[in-house]
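assembly run, all chains below
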Amino acid sequence: MNRSSFSAPGVNTDLFQDFPRTFSLYIHVPFCRNKCSYCDFYSLPVKKNTEEFFRTYTAFLGRELDLYGKILSSKRLQSIYLGGGTPSLFSPELLAEVLVKIQDHFSLSAAAEITLEANPESLTEKKIQNYVQLGVNRISLGVQSFQDQELSLLGRCHTADRAHTAAGLLQNSRVNFNIDLIFAFPGHTVKSWSDTLDQALQFAPDHVSIYNLELKKGTPLADQIEAGEREPTTEEIDLQMYKKARFKLIQAGYDHYEISNFAHPDRQSVHNKIYWQYRPYLGLGPAAHGFSGQKRYYNTDSLETYYSRLERGKLPGAEVIDLSKQDLRAEKMMMGLRLLRGVSKEEFADRFAVNLEDVYGLEIEKLKRQGLLGESEKRVFLTDKGIFLGNRVFQEFLP
Amino acid sequence: MEVEKIRNFCIIAHIDHGKSTLADRILEKTDTLSDREMKDQVLDSMDLERERGITIKAQPVRLLYDGFELNLIDTPGHVDFSYEVSRSLAACEGALLVIDAAQGIEAQTMSNIYLALEHDLDIIPVINKIDLDASDPEWVKEQLLEVGLDPDEALLTSAKEGTGIDALLEAVIDRVSPPRDNSSKPLRALVFDSVYDSYQGVIPYVRIIDGEIAPGDKIKMMSNNNVYEVDEVGSFSPQMREADSLKCGEVGYIIAGIKEIRNCRVGDTVTGAHREAKEPLPGYKEVKPMVFSGLYPSENNDYELLKEALDKLQLNDASFTFEPETSEALGYGFRCGFLGLLHMEIIQERLEREYDLDLVVTAPSVVYRVTTSQGEVKEIENPALFPEKNKIEKIEEPFVNTEIKLPDEYIGPVMELCENNRGEFEDMQYLTRDRVSLKYNMPLSEIITDFFGRLKSRSRGYATLDYTIEGYRASDLVKMDILVNKEPVDALSTVVYEDDAYNIGQDIAKKLKEVIPRQMFKVPIQAAVGSNVICRVTIPARKKDVLQKCYGGDVSRKRKLLERQKEGKKRMKQVGSVDIPQEAFMTILERGSDE
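ok done. output:
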């Protein structure tokens, strides 16, 4: 792995020449009403003058898009994902500007998926209608829990009631939607988790994502645990919850297609699968990440720098990471095995011009012996045990 | 210089009573150093010595005052180095006994007085730090009377402010006897320290007791009969300064191409190879290390580096020993012997600092004397090497006399601590209205297991500890093994008092459960005495370990987490099929941690 600064001569053109004809677009919207107690992603609190603030942000996203419009020779998008942060803080008018700007420079494939992440407190019936009219065809709702006490522990600014309302609105609107849930946070019980899952299922979402809480140093929740104010959950409870969710969701007709993701047939997330399949995406906005298929890069994580670079007509990238052959293959395995279908041997051979067995024969054998990996004629994939112990599997492939 | 004009003296003092500062003032007063060369605690040349405020190596210096040659020998101030101190004293005729005017006579002061009397030195009591508000010279004088010294002879100084230094130098000339004039006798020079120089080899520091020595002389070390030719002699200013010869009564150094420090030990006698003395000077002994521990490189590749570093350190320090040792758990390393805990800490710190080594250190052990059923007596310093329990007739361990001084409000908890550590109460005395001296006989092994740390925590840092070796005593000791996943881990074996085995075993097992991460399978941890398992805890198997989110396509972040996990695993020591982190090997030290 080689790292170079974004402003290094020659970097930009090299990087962007790698992009294939069709790719995906991620737009980061790093603003929230307030920061959740477990979150260590880049986001800034916005309390007042939201509209004005977003107007400025929209303008700069426009500049970044203009620059890419000039640099990139291929311009077809198969998915757009507006993540955050809280993208649903965007008024439909400003979102329209962003989407128009995108289409000034890029064409969308016929079935392009356009996802917008939304928090329950900022979603109304009217807003949903407007978003859908603009072309948003998938909404991902950050519910996290249907219990008030838990929501307040997680530092969410919505109530269980508000989550119900928002999920109900989405269900009625018939838009394709996802519900995000978190489990295994301090004090979380299997019983309440089970109840949250049941409540989520009442709204018949097309897609459900479940994430166990990862404690990150420096977040309020991690601090409280370090200070002994809260007990973290045990690995046993975490596993029990994960199994519970898996059972309930599969019972309800969902397909467990990725470690954390469940979907009805034909409702798997196109955009997220781009990541798992290790295919290219362009990232816009501060702290956004992109991948050309050969190299990774990420934008500056300071809004100020982001603005000032764009003002000077420069891309706001912070660093480009050159990936060696070994890096690319390892990351392909690390990402690809997250999909429960696993990694196709044929696809691996096509992409890297070498057989999977020739590169990772020993690792695969070892993991099979440990009962973590399965193999068929065409693919290698995680076993049930391997799903729970995925990190052990992924580590084996890292150089 | 003729013998009548020479005075050889040392400064002896309890830690912190101002010895090094007083030495600084004496150097200034005698214009031994230019202002440019002067810095605080000149004679403590190692960074470590200055930082810790202790003297580790003896450092002589020649002072010229009023037509006299005064040789000052700065001595180490810690009980670990008492043999070295005794040899320095043997090189002198007089001693400045420095006593803190506020602290009074302390344990170390007493043992210093005894040492000085043993060597028949002229003692000049110096009551120092009279500038302090809390100073009470009259009270110190009363104490002097109690220990049989003439209080009227005591000098009052403030090394910090430089008062009383002239009077002190006059007193050295008037009251310290000149060396005996044995110029015509065959050469006998006492080695009281040495340094290693990569060009010159081992350079002994000597006091000429009989005869004289000059370049070109053939000399012989009387302990091993090795013969060398003298290249250079000289005195200390305090840097080495070449001279034509060293005469009877003088202090200086000899360069004679001596390769190895073990051929030139402290206490040995240098004589002439052609005109040999009949008897060596008295008092030579080979000092034996009291505390042992295994030193292993964290990275196996660093073994050679560690060996080189130990070799180099030993060039300067013959009292420190090391031998290659193999541990199933830790790989290749060395069993090192130290004079005491301070000595051990110093060596470890120097290895890590000066040689940039990352070490795994096993818990320190004393030397046990084991009598087998066959009547054979073995000295064993590595618990892992203990014979089977049924083959042991008797185990003896070293005991020490400890003296703990503390404010009386902490007596209760400190006595409890001593008694929990098999201490036998000897005596308690009020030193002042609220300061107490507690005396206990205790096994040395209890002292080296974080006793000092716990003592400090129970006395809020106010207690001080001194100990001297009393001798060996039989004890009901057993070797306790720790089994991880049913396999004994040699580096975790320890010798414990039989009655404490259960509690200590439980403590260690619990600690290990905390520091050893979950493995892919259940891992039992057992403490066992012989084949008898006395306790067991189990580390549950790793059940779930999988990262969830990949937010906004941030692959780097995910990969970093995985790499960190993988790296952490690599740094662990693999014992059987279990990955054990390095900190686990120190858990034995922290056993029975307080409250």
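The CA atoms of residues 41 and 85 of chain A lie 8 Å apart.

Chain A has a mean pLDDT of 92.

not gonna interpret more than that til we talk
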